[in-house]
Every structure is written in structure tokens, then in C-alpha cells.
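Quick one: C-alpha cells for this chain, please?
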Amino acid sequence: MPLIEQGRNMDFLSQMYKKAKYRANLIEKRPSTGIPVVPFKPALWGHGISIIAEVKYATPSEGSLGIKKDPSTLAGIYEESGASAISCITEPDYFAGDLSYISQIRSNCKLPILMKDFIVDERQISAGRDRGADAFLLITEMLSLKELDGLYTFGKGLGMDPLVEVHTKEGMEKALEIGAEIIGVNARSLATLEVVPDRHEEMIGNIPGGVIKVAQSGVTSRKRLIRLRALGYDAVLIGRALADATTRKELFSCG
């Protein structure tokens, strides 16, 4: 069953903001594990087009995706297939994620790990780093400019690379104002949670040269991957499409 019904998700980000704040307050301080950072940014640069393979078990619109393999096994398959980095969703309520998944992946995977969540608090970033995350996601449309800049700077101070996600031109302006070095254009609408055709095409012209460009959502075929590479994207973040062995083989043949 879908976790968010069609037509009732207009304030999705505000819901997620509140839930993330609540979860951040529950994070217990723990001693640093001293796990070294695996550089995320170099994994996305200069490889034709890099694939960030996502460990994901559910979506807000579809509910469970029926993926049975554990995070460690799934990440190992993606690494062996040719992924440049792993994205690990840790949001529990709508994506069936968990912070412990980062530790599981780190134990069996040498690739850099992106912590993908609705991050609103420094404690979330610290918790991800303590478990072995090397990068983290920030969503411009969910955060004020002050919050965005503060979280970006905090994570950088831990040696992590922030992937700054944008959906709109206003979000792009915020990303550029804080000096984002990695910008992800997400083609999924925040209002309907459906993929918006041509958003990747429309937005890439707003990203300056020297900034790593990542395409998010809607990448399910070799044809689309080739198109994004031609547009100038350096990397793509792919989730559920990689869970299918046939599609996975097709997509990694372009990497």
C-alpha cells in the first residue's frame, strides 16, 4: 500500500522536517568509531558518468518495493556491478531505512557511502559519520538558507561531502549561494512525488562549470543514461531500477 496517498502530499517536506527533528532528538551521543572517510567527490568526477547505486526498500507513493536482500548484500552486488558510490536511505517512516544500514554496508563495501535522509540537524550528520557515511544529502527546498549553510559547513568540517539536492530554480539559487560543489537535480515533484519529464534538461544550464552535476530520479534505461551523459551530468543516482538484474546489467554497461 502507498504510504502517502495521491493528492494528500502537498506538505510532504514539512511533514518530513518535523519527523526528522523528532528523530534527531532521539539520537544518543556515542563515541566516535574513527572510521576513515572514503572520498565521495572524486568517485563522481571524470569517469564518463558515474552511478550512485541506492539501497532503498520503500517509497512514499508505492510502499514496500519487495526487495529481500539485506543492505550489505545489496551494496556488495552494486559494487561488483560497477557502482562508483552507494546511497543508503536511512529515513524509517516512509522509506523503510535505518541508520544501522550504513554500518552494515560499510562492513562489506569499500565504496563511498552517501547518507540519504531528510537532514535538518547536525546530530543526524554526526550519527551517519560515526557509522561510516562519507557524504550526506541536503534538500534546499526543505531548509532555510541559514540552515542549509550551517549543515553544509558542519558536515564539511567532519570531512564529508554534501550532495545538495534541488528541485526548482529557487532551490538552485540557494545551492549556488552556499557554494555547493556537488548539486543533484531531482526530477521528482515535491507536490505529487511523480517524475517531471525534462527537469534534468531544464535545470542543467543553471549549474556552473566546475560543479559536479548529479541527476536524480527517473533513470531507468540505458537510453536515458546516455542522454544524461550527453547533457553534461557527471553522475546519476539510481534506486529501484538497479534491484532488477536485467535492468542493472543494462545500466551498468553505460557507466
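The chain is about 35% helix and 15% strand.
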